[in-house]
Amino acid sequence: MARRTQAQLQQSYREQALKMFPWVCAHCGREFEGKKLSQLTVHHKDHNHDNNPPDGSNWELLCLYCHDNEHQRNQAPDPSGEAPTAREQDRPSTFTPFAHLTDLLKRKT
Q: Collapsing DSSP states into helix, strand and coil, what is residue 42?
């Protein structure tokens, strides 16, 4: 039996994730459909691309921007030059993308 290439594996778990999860970025909440669906990527929560459980528990769908941000956040060194501690890495995000949405909608009317 021939081994699957990395691209084939990625396409396989992406197809599975798109069947399991709503087509919404798990971070920013943006919805995707049609041609824009290609901008929705599968992110491995534990950053291990070999960990692909059939229930999808290690995956989340992220838009290209949030996916890049997620990986940069984990790789960016502290301005002091020190690596972030495990405690700092595990801190939940405080970003709320729709915090001022009501105000923005009121201005448009």
A: strand
